[in-house]
Design brief:
Blueprint lengths: L5 H19 L4 E6 L5 H7 L4 E4 L4 E6 L2 H14 L2 E6 L2 H4 L11 H12 L15
Antiparallel strand pairs: 1-3, 1-4, 2-3
Amino acid sequence: AFDGEQPSALWRHVEDFTPHFLEAHPDGAVVRVSCTLKGLEAVMVAFDGPAIARAGSGICYGYFDHTDAAAAWMDEAVRRGWRAVIEFSPEARKSDLELWPAPAGDLATMRRVKELFDPGSLLNRGRLYRRI
């Protein structure tokens, strides 16, 4: 249990963790994983470094000091059947990475929505992990 300002300070720290981490690790990366609540523990244990879980939604964020470590972790995530994306990485490294290695069935829906609003595919080409 927290008293006074402690809850606010904790949530500010959680909210600011990603930008502070990336500022301190110029070659760092952040991976976002969607999992079931039952799978939450396995995902969190798989991260070697800092991690944050949104336990109510099954969204986990893993923080990597180096982009290569995030890419290697993503290979393992795909092998395990987890839905993961590299959400943040240095711009210079993005072209070398597979940011979304295993899209699910929702990719087709996303493409249809994109086609409805941008039939000529003129806007933000390739913006969604180079797939849409």
